[in-house]
Amino acid sequence: MRAETLQRQNDALLERTSLLEAQLAENKAVAARLQMELVEKQLRIARLKSAQEGLTQEVAQPPVRFSVPSTKVEAVTFLAEVSTEIATVRETLHDEGGQLVSRVERLLADSRTELEQGNYDPACSLAAQALELVRTQRLKNALQRKEQVGVYADFIMPLRLELAKRSNFRKKPSLRGEILDTLDQGTLVTAGGYQGSWIKVGTADGRNGWVYSALLAIPEAYSPFFTPVR
Q1: Does CATH place domain 25-60+150-230 in 2.30.30.40?
Q2: C-alpha torsion 108→112→117→122, nearest 10
Q3: pLDDT digits 0-9 by tens, 62-102
């Protein structure tokens, strides 16, 4: 009789323990979702501010305009001014793959060809297009840097996350940060905090680095009722 009573008490204790573990897992999942939503909300605010400042800068910086040259000297002078400005800012541009530089160089080459043929207006127009491309890219770079720069903040509690897509694992929170490794989709990581659009994570083998926030998700195994963070 006593054994049956102890068994019932043990079963009840196990059931309560199981229930508490389930509630704890659910609370952790809710906390993870709320913290990731906070990151996303702050990113949206940063993007809106950047977009607003970008519009302000675009208004303050009118399109490249030039007077139609009447002589070769005027055209040559304008092309020299454009080439000088482009050369000054070219090294500061973040140009993935060099596509922008190639387009700019092609426009400048075409501009010089038109100049040699005595077509001064088309020559200046092509040079102006090249300068416009450089100015636009410089503005984009400035806005991206502003969005990426932020104060580091710890999460309230470490988050168990996984890679929603294959991602670079970087030394610093930036696209220019050194790539330490490439993490496959489904890799589990522990997130400790965030800075801008980057999440600081630790891997199972003890390494620490940064992953872009949009590439992380709350694992379904830990939170079956939540969809991946986007």
Answers
A1: yes
A2: 40
A3: 555 556 667 888 888 888 888 888 887 776 666 555 688 88
